[in-house]
Amino acid sequence: MDLVSRFSFLPPEIATMILAMIPLTELQGSIPVALTVYQLDPLAAYFFSIIGNLIPAVIILWLLGPISGWLIKHSSWAESFFSWLFAHTRHRFTGKYERWGALGLILFVALPGPLTGVWTGSVAAFLFGIQKVKALLLIALGIMITGLIILLATLGVISFF
Length: 161
Description:
The chain is mainly α. It has one domain. 78% of the residues lie in helices and 0% in strands. Helix 3 runs antiparallel to helix 4 and helix 6 packs antiparallel against helix 7. The chain starts with a helix and ends in a 7-residue tail after the last helix.
């Protein structure tokens, strides 16, 4: 059963939000599916995808520190995982943040690509100690930009080829 079928029992708006929350789909999957499979109008597809994509950012920014700290204390597996995750994220984001500052976080979230987006951007904001509210606003701006790009590309207004 494919990922889209798993949510077919839900209202299309909720299914769109869930797809936007998943790290492998995020907006790159939720917006095209909302438009083509769920037949949502473009504004609804954009809105519910943005809201869904913001949810992981809120969770990561506010809960990653306490949860990772507790898990690291109680599990060697968690310690290994978070060490890898934090080192990997620092490596991917350090140059961008040092060079571009806040704009770097926006662009990191906004430019669709492998291992960029809300999940990695939120972890990076946490690791670099960016104030939570500021990070959330920067991430939200990045989400809105990438959402608009994907929406326009899905509608055929812009093309990359």
